[in-house]
Amino acid sequence: MTKQQLFEQIQKKRSFLCVGLDSSLDKIPQHLLKYENPILEFNKQIIDATKDLCVAYKPNTAFYECYGKKGWETLIETWKYIPQDIFSIADAKRGDIGNTSAMYAETFFNAASSDMSFDSVTVAPYMGSDSVTPFLTFKDKWVILLALTSNAGHADFQLQEIGADRLFEKVIKTSKTWATAEQMMYVVGATRGAAFGDVRKLAPDHFLLVPGVGAQGGDLSEVCKYGLNSQCGLLINSSRGIIYASQGEDFAEKAREEALKLQQEMEQILIKAGLV
């Protein structure tokens, strides 16, 4: 999916919502345990209930890898179930020496070898350009680079000053030489608030994947105040706040209700910004 195609989906659905599929056996409704693959059934019902309200799905691969072979099978089948016109994100946070990163890229991008071909993968930049560039060799695929995250420990490194820049600013400045805004996005946590203004000075045209709205306390209006650009430029992720809205048999219906609340709020933001 190209940047323009993603923006067209945002305009069509009047939404820039990403639903995080952080699905765990100990959190999904217990009545689903009767199914042969409870997590896959859960994911399918969540996708069916929200696919007209969101423009992206983001399975966090840790929630699948922990179940071994069956977990990988579930991740593959979940990817296959995501509609092709919805942006798919493998939230894997990979990044290693070049030949290892190349294998990670094959894992998430090459359906011929892995049965998966996500539109994008999250990547850690700590090891530098040769750990990221193998992901960029795949046509029409995206790298979503960790920049300024929503976790409490982000300040341990990301805010440390490196000369005139903080580390997250150095990451953005340097990585912009590796790929354009047509192939690279950045992860910026919703709990960072006004820091979106600093990010936008460095990356005015890039899409930003924004976790932390909802359960982690991020404020959508504040994120949009500083982060919105001429093509929206934001994918706002909500995971627990949507998928675990209910533990009952109505879980999919309740997930839809929560997704609809965010979509309606996003629609008003897009209208106000003149983007729809």
UniProtKB/TrEMBL annotation:
GO molecular function: orotidine-5'-phosphate decarboxylase activity
Family: Belongs to the OMP decarboxylase family. Type 2 subfamily.
Domain Orotidine 5'-phosphate decarboxylase positions: 16-255
Known EC number: 4.1.1.23
Keyword Ribosomal protein: no
Gene Ontology biological process terms, A to Z: 'de novo' pyrimidine nucleobase biosynthetic process; 'de novo' UMP biosynthetic process
Reaction equation(s) it catalyzes: orotidine 5'-phosphate + H(+) = UMP + CO2
Pathway this chain belongs to: Pyrimidine metabolism; UMP biosynthesis via de novo pathway; UMP from orotate: step 2/2
Lineage: Bacteria, Pseudomonadati, Bacteroidota, Sphingobacteriia, Sphingobacteriales
Pfam families: OMPdecase
Name of this protein: Orotidine-5'-phosphate decarboxylase
UniProt KW keywords: Decarboxylase, Lyase, Pyrimidine biosynthesis
Gene assigned in the entry: pyrF
InterPro entries: Aldolase_TIM, OMPdecase_type-2, OMPdeCOase_dom, RibuloseP-bd_barrel
